[in-house]
## 1
Amino acid sequence: MISLNGYFNDTLLPVSEIRLPVNDLLIFRGLGVFDYMRTYNRKVFLFEEHITRLFASADRMGLHHHWLFSQISQKIQNLADQSPLPESAFRVILTGGMGSHSLEPGPANLIILTEEVHPYPAIAYDKGINAKLCHYDRYRPDAKSITYSQAVLELAEAKKDGFSEVLYHNGNEISEGTTCNFFGIKDGTLITAEDGILKGTRRNFILSFAEKYCKVEMRSVQLDELSHLDEAFVTSTTREILPVTGIDHISIGNGKPGDLTQKLHSAYRSFLTV
């Protein structure tokens, strides 16, 4: 078994030896935030965007910490340099800590874990995936909080029913997926939610170049639009741009990954070889 290292605050340890105090509010109350990033060619992609979002999430959730961008950057770079993996992923967590009682945050603990990258299989990109709809409004969706119990439970149920992903909606429109952003394509226009979501680093990056290939509308896809979509896909650090060819047994377009989805993914991949 490959031994991977991580950090607990300023202490470098094997990941298997990292321990969190049992009274930390991450354990007591599920209070904490995290971010997840991966390397290409052993360099973390969109590193600054990930750490900026981590700090913004901590502010949004009222966490107290003293960590500087440069300190976390140095720790992750050290882990990347020494990683025995060809490519690595890093999970950076800021916990709720413990104040004077169990409903008061204290100084946050910092945990950084080195993990293996688990890419989606090629067949998922060749044929696309099916997604299940779920009525759910996340609490403070603009923060990447550690609370993902709904995603874990709903995704497990969806997989029993033969689906690969869950898409959240509020009864009228789709917001996002369990750990991904959602895009629809209709009449050559790319559509994605602007509000009430966690704005993924991949989502933002794709939007930075998408207008070279199509029109872009910053709005949510309506549920009654699903049968009229030509294409759809989800984005995340591990998924990159993953085609969605069916939603709740509704076929998207011709039921195959669309041309624009594939063009955007090819463009995305071209940035990784620079």
## 2
Amino acid sequence: MPEDRSEPVWPGQPPAGPEPTAGGARVPARAAWWGLAGAAVGLVLATLLQGIGLAATGQRSVTPSNTALLTVLGEVGLWAAMLGTAVFVSRRYGSRSLQRDFGLGIRPADIGWGALAMVGGFVASSVVVAAFAHTRFAGSNSQIVTGQKGHELGLVVVGLVVAVGAPFFEELFFRGFLRTAFEARLGGHGAVWAQAGFFALAHLGEAGGWGNVSVVSALFLLGVVLGYTAKLTGRLGAGMVAHGMFNLVAVVTTVL
């Protein structure tokens, strides 16, 4: 009787298959509805954690001294919901592997692809900013950074939040989970543009009044670039690099 040389499959281990890609047929379109639940949970968690932060500092409102702390707490609430949504959808509809279902992974080549995507995103968003310059629609979402001028530790903390944390969790949620779910109904190109719209709307309110028009429009184009980056590379790594570099450049140029 020939010897069985096949690899054992442990309980809970995803079955052997092709190289993980950012988007597959395993996750159905209806899974996208869980994104709304995840967003709602994230807002609740962010509000609760920020309330705890205010209580811990003995302050009743946002001040330059507690902005960094409240930013971290709020983002942790949102990130927990984003990660939880992706994990839940992967376990309910997919292979239980974030790599296989959503392309979570990075390779050395993604650094180069990420740099290229960052340039594309920067050019696209700059066109929007220039188009709305000197109009009532011009705005900025850099207040989170400018509020830390003179507070070195706070600036470092905020810089890490926007350049490391946000790119990881937002890429997993929008370019991984949401784009994959949309792809089952809208196809590859339609999914890229759809997730970019929700990515942009998620930042609505970060600029005051009509200024949201330019901010949301610029982030929509950035989301398109990052969406195609995930689609073309088959992984989220390059988009995470691009997103992180884009945010880091924004922080540096705001501070200088």
## 3
Amino acid sequence: MSIELGKDSIDIGIVVKDADTALKFYRDTLGFEHVADTPVAGGTMHRLMCGTTLVKIVKHDVVSENADHTGGPGGATGIRYWTITVPDLEAITDKCRSAGYTVAVEPRDVRPGVRISMVEDPDGNWVEFLENNA
């Protein structure tokens, strides 16, 4: 049995240590559209759009000492990365590198016509960029 969907994408919430550095990455470097800031219990949610996906950057007033494990797919169990399909993998990877972000996985082929790279955001979360020419 599948659930009935209200839209064609899944929203994602990313709890961050520093909203300014997260916004610099997601809004300024990747170009996500900033649509609103919303107060949430004990903090602020910065709402950004990536296509039809709402990316919720959440900064709590008191930052927890508990930190998620960073390090991409092999770093721990749980959600380790998320994927954005792009038309020009080299361009977005170079843009992130030029802005000072760590390219954790250099552009590479994963199967015929499909290439990926992975970049760390300021909190160590990995974003996979995928170019599909298959």
